[in-house]
Amino acid sequence: MVSNKLTKQDVIENADSLNLPTSVMQFLQGYLGEPEGGFPEPFRSKALKGAPVVKGRPGATLEPLDLGTTKRELREKFGSWITDRDVMSYAMYPAVFEEYAAHYNKYGDVSILSSDMIFEPVKMVGNTYMIKRRVNGST
Protein backbone atom coordinates (compact mmCIF):
# COMPACT_ATOMS: atom_id res chain seq x y z
CA MET A 1 0.00 0.00 0.00
CA VAL A 2 2.68 2.46 1.04
CA SER A 3 5.24 1.61 -1.66
CA ASN A 4 2.53 1.81 -4.34
CA LYS A 5 1.17 5.05 -2.87
CA LEU A 6 -2.33 3.57 -2.53
CA THR A 7 -4.94 5.13 -0.32
CA LYS A 8 -7.41 3.11 1.74
CA GLN A 9 -10.05 3.96 -0.87
CA ASP A 10 -7.75 2.78 -3.72
CA VAL A 11 -7.33 -0.59 -1.99
CA ILE A 12 -11.08 -1.01 -1.39
CA GLU A 13 -12.03 -0.02 -4.94
CA ASN A 14 -9.32 -2.15 -6.60
CA ALA A 15 -9.34 -5.17 -4.29
CA ASP A 16 -10.27 -7.50 -7.15
CA SER A 17 -7.24 -6.48 -9.22
CA LEU A 18 -4.58 -6.20 -6.50
CA ASN A 19 -1.99 -8.96 -6.13
CA LEU A 20 -2.46 -9.61 -2.40
CA PRO A 21 -0.06 -11.94 -0.53
CA THR A 22 -1.24 -15.48 0.18
CA SER A 23 -1.22 -14.73 3.91
CA VAL A 24 -3.70 -11.86 3.41
CA MET A 25 -5.93 -14.00 1.20
CA GLN A 26 -5.95 -16.82 3.77
CA PHE A 27 -6.76 -14.33 6.51
CA LEU A 28 -9.70 -13.01 4.47
CA GLN A 29 -10.85 -16.58 3.84
CA GLY A 30 -11.05 -17.12 7.60
CA TYR A 31 -8.18 -19.56 8.05
CA LEU A 32 -7.00 -17.59 11.10
CA GLY A 33 -10.48 -17.15 12.52
CA GLU A 34 -12.79 -14.19 12.24
CA PRO A 35 -11.93 -10.77 13.68
CA GLU A 36 -14.26 -9.07 16.14
CA GLY A 37 -16.93 -7.33 14.08
CA GLY A 38 -16.26 -9.48 11.00
CA PHE A 39 -14.28 -8.74 7.86
CA PRO A 40 -14.42 -5.41 6.02
CA GLU A 41 -16.88 -5.52 3.14
CA PRO A 42 -16.94 -5.03 0.18
CA PHE A 43 -13.13 -5.36 0.31
CA ARG A 44 -13.24 -9.00 1.41
CA SER A 45 -15.67 -10.17 -1.26
CA LYS A 46 -13.88 -8.30 -4.03
CA ALA A 47 -10.44 -9.58 -2.98
CA LEU A 48 -11.57 -13.21 -2.67
CA LYS A 49 -13.26 -13.29 -6.09
CA GLY A 50 -15.39 -16.28 -5.07
CA ALA A 51 -12.64 -18.23 -3.25
CA PRO A 52 -13.96 -20.57 -0.51
CA VAL A 53 -14.51 -19.15 2.96
CA VAL A 54 -14.11 -20.97 6.29
CA LYS A 55 -17.22 -20.75 8.46
CA GLY A 56 -16.75 -21.11 12.21
CA ARG A 57 -13.58 -22.15 14.00
CA PRO A 58 -10.91 -23.00 11.38
CA GLY A 59 -9.71 -26.22 13.05
CA ALA A 60 -13.17 -27.63 13.74
CA THR A 61 -13.42 -29.46 10.41
CA LEU A 62 -9.85 -30.78 10.21
CA GLU A 63 -9.33 -34.52 10.06
CA PRO A 64 -7.40 -36.07 12.99
CA LEU A 65 -3.64 -36.13 12.45
CA ASP A 66 -1.52 -39.13 13.42
CA LEU A 67 1.64 -37.44 14.69
CA GLY A 68 3.65 -40.68 14.75
CA THR A 69 2.88 -41.42 11.11
CA THR A 70 3.56 -37.81 10.15
CA LYS A 71 6.95 -37.91 11.90
CA ARG A 72 7.84 -41.16 10.13
CA GLU A 73 6.85 -39.69 6.74
CA LEU A 74 8.83 -36.50 7.37
CA ARG A 75 11.91 -38.52 8.38
CA GLU A 76 11.62 -40.58 5.20
CA LYS A 77 11.39 -37.42 3.12
CA PHE A 78 13.90 -35.16 4.93
CA GLY A 79 16.06 -37.32 7.22
CA SER A 80 16.43 -38.54 10.77
CA TRP A 81 16.97 -35.04 12.20
CA ILE A 82 13.18 -34.43 12.29
CA THR A 83 12.00 -33.80 15.88
CA ASP A 84 8.57 -33.61 17.53
CA ARG A 85 8.81 -29.83 17.26
CA ASP A 86 9.37 -30.16 13.52
CA VAL A 87 6.25 -32.34 13.28
CA MET A 88 4.20 -29.63 15.02
CA SER A 89 5.65 -26.97 12.72
CA TYR A 90 4.70 -29.09 9.72
CA ALA A 91 1.19 -29.69 11.08
CA MET A 92 0.56 -25.95 11.36
CA TYR A 93 2.51 -24.66 8.35
CA PRO A 94 3.24 -27.54 5.94
CA ALA A 95 4.45 -25.48 2.97
CA VAL A 96 6.68 -23.28 5.15
CA PHE A 97 8.14 -26.30 6.94
CA GLU A 98 8.88 -28.17 3.70
CA GLU A 99 10.72 -25.12 2.36
CA TYR A 100 12.69 -24.87 5.62
CA ALA A 101 13.54 -28.60 5.62
CA ALA A 102 14.75 -28.51 2.02
CA HIS A 103 16.91 -25.46 2.85
CA TYR A 104 18.26 -27.19 5.98
CA ASN A 105 19.14 -30.31 4.00
CA LYS A 106 20.89 -28.26 1.32
CA TYR A 107 22.77 -25.72 3.48
CA GLY A 108 22.80 -27.20 7.00
CA ASP A 109 22.15 -25.27 10.19
CA VAL A 110 22.68 -21.65 9.15
CA SER A 111 21.51 -20.42 12.57
CA ILE A 112 25.14 -20.73 13.71
CA LEU A 113 26.23 -18.06 11.22
CA SER A 114 26.51 -14.52 12.52
CA SER A 115 24.19 -11.84 11.13
CA ASP A 116 26.97 -10.16 9.17
CA MET A 117 27.48 -13.38 7.18
CA ILE A 118 23.82 -13.29 6.20
CA PHE A 119 23.49 -9.59 5.42
CA GLU A 120 26.93 -8.79 3.99
CA PRO A 121 28.49 -10.57 1.01
CA VAL A 122 31.16 -13.14 1.86
CA LYS A 123 34.50 -12.65 0.14
CA MET A 124 35.21 -15.72 -1.95
CA VAL A 125 38.56 -17.03 -3.18
CA GLY A 126 37.69 -19.08 -6.24
CA ASN A 127 34.77 -21.20 -5.10
CA THR A 128 36.00 -21.70 -1.52
CA TYR A 129 35.99 -19.66 1.64
CA MET A 130 36.88 -20.37 5.24
CA ILE A 131 34.72 -19.56 8.22
CA LYS A 132 36.26 -19.03 11.64
CA ARG A 133 33.67 -19.39 14.32
CA ARG A 134 34.15 -17.81 17.71
CA VAL A 135 32.88 -19.68 20.71
CA ASN A 136 32.67 -17.80 24.02
CA GLY A 137 34.96 -15.06 22.77
CA SER A 138 37.79 -17.32 21.55
CA THR A 139 38.68 -18.10 17.93
Describe the structure.
Helices cover 43% and strands 0% of the residues. The protein contains seven helices and no strands. It has helices at residues 8-13, 22-29, 43-48, 67-78, 84-92, 94-107, 115-119. The chain is flat and about 55 Å long. The mean pLDDT is 87.
The pLDDT mean sits at 87
Count of alpha/pi helices: 7
Number of strands: 0
Cα distance, first to last residue? 46 Å
Strand fraction: under 5%
**Helix-strand string:** HHHHHHH
Structural class: mainly alpha
User: Helix amount, in percent?
Assistant: 40-55%
Oligomer: single chain
Give a quick account of the main beta sheet: strands, pairing sense, barrel closure: none
Low-confidence stretches: none
Overall outline: flat
Question: How large, in whole angstroms, is the Cα Rg?
Answer: 22 Å
Write out key terms for the chains shown:
single chain, 139 residues, mainly alpha, 7 helices, 43% helix
Summarize the structure.
By secondary structure, the chain is mainly α. It is built from 7 helices and no strands. It is about 45% helix and about 0% strand.
Fold blueprint:
Blueprint: H1 8-13, H2 22-29, H3 43-48, H4 67-78, H5 84-92, H6 94-107, H7 115-119
Helix pairs in contact: 4-5, 5-6
